[in-house]
Amino acid sequence: MKDIKELVKDYLEENHAREKKEDGEYHFDIYVDYRDEIGDSTAQEILESDYPRDTLIEKLRDWYQESEWDIIDNLVDDFKEKTDPKLFEDANIIEDGNLDDEMIREEFMDAVCVDYPEDWALGQEFCFNIIVSNGDDNYDFWLNTHIIDEDENVDKDAEKAGLVWLAKQQGHTLDELVEILKNGDIEEPKTFLETVLQEVANGYGCEALTFCVKMTLGQAIALKEKMESNPNGSIVIDKRAECGLFDPWGGSGSVLGVACEKDIEIPFTNIWKFYIDKRRSNRYDSIHSVYGTDSSLWKDYLKEIKA
Fold first, then answer.
1. For 187-222, what is each residue's pLDDT tens digit?
2. CA gap 124, 119 in Å, rounded
3. pLDDT at position 86
């Protein structure tokens, strides 16, 4: 004579052998509708939480718990249909002529694993703005467009400008950048330094060096975790990424046309902020909104997280 636990075990072995994984458990996946998506605001909320992965799981449970219940209910119904009623009597799970559905349901809850779509969620892509500071955040990023003044004098703190940091990262010196800012060709910029000149000339004031990169939620969470656990790490961005000067506080910016000559390695210590550029927003910090652009501006150009 078998009890309910043994009956459920027999049922799973006979009918759901494919769902038995290496850990010895029976796993049933929650399937995501093709129309489902994680909104920009929700993804940003997850990233800003103290424990993003835990917050994500909590969100998934809120969204898909009914699907878990449906899976269990379907298993219970199928189990009842395929199991000999005499076995239920022997297992003592019939009360007043009716099966104890709650007991069966609880047994299935213990016997199977319902997997929430965490991989799907972590694979969702978002448009990120990565703001770089080399100390110029202490100057409200004013230095980027004031490396030299109207009299062509170099600012005493010019080395702290994000654009100067980028020029050096690309293999140039401050003197070379200053020369271009004074005498470069703004009409038809062809070199990296000339595109920096164009960016500065079209700037408005307090604008930060910004890189536009598409990342998955999983990549963004990993980046946040590694920035917290290893401040000496860095990220590598493809040289083709859109970058330039943007003011997320006043809703203005330059042409976002700096053309880098080689991939950019940004130490974690130089990442002032990274956040999702919301697609449907009227906020000043949204390039989508300020420039009226679509998401094609952002591409999958995060090449590596070094940590």
1. 888 899 999 999 999 998 899 999 999 999 999 999
2. 9
3. 83
